[in-house]
Design brief:
The chain is an alpha+beta fold and 124 residues long. It is 41% helix and 10% strand. The chain is globular.
Length: 124
Amino acid sequence: ASAIGARSQSGRTYLEKHYEAVAAAADGDGATVDDLIMHALRALAGCVSTDDKEAKAKGNAEGLTRDNGSVGIVGKDQKFRLIEGDELQPYLDRLELEGGLGGAGAGAGDDAGGDGGDDEQMET
């Protein structure tokens, strides 16, 4: 796996850090196509900057969205499939719940899943 282009280092870092999980999913070791799509989006999310002055000047400072993102799926004995727009939105929603949208970086989603219970125990 690889990434090219502006800010691609973050995507490469994510893929290197999660190589074994991505490779296992690609080999069909209990993972689904959805798992691979989420890995791709996590890698892409780290490549999209929302704080870049140049991106803001060009109107591209919104982070990863259904309008600027897409995922291509290719595999043995299957036709190429492009996921974008409305079909991509549920995956982006899931990524947002993990905390991985808006250029959150290579570790997006690593700490997802908390129930927020600590908020109820703390008083000020």
